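Listing S7. Sequence submitted for prediction.
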Amino acid sequence: MSRKKARDNAFKCIYQFEFTDKPDIDNILEDCYMENDNIEDEKEYIEKVVRGVYSNLEQIDKDILSKLKNWTITRIAKIDLAILRLAIYEIMFINEIPVKVTANEAVELAKTYGNTGSKSFVNGVIAKVIEERQEDN
């Protein structure tokens, strides 16, 4: 399985956070693994990202909102939010993935799963995150 497919599966797991107050991460991951044969080689990445996003959700959401004016988390489309959470986690915590790869993959997810404005919205927020990160370094 490719990293792209693993990222797709991680996004789907993160998307599930929106449908319960306290997501059962173990159950979400187990469902993902059962639905996807040949996922063995990407389990480590998927688990790291899904658990990482969940553990850092408050910080990630705060970062997302800092890039938007007069928005709340509930105003962001659930799909776009899951994509942003995944991408921002990768940018903040996984240094071995180039930020351009993360940004491109996030836009691809937005094109595949989002609505007509998702691509631009996701790209804009991620561009601001990357710009801020580069200014800090």
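Caption to Listing S7: primary sequence and predicted structure tokens for the chain studied. The mean pLDDT is 92. The helical segments are 3-15, 25-35, 43-55, 57-66, 78-93, 99-113, 118-136.
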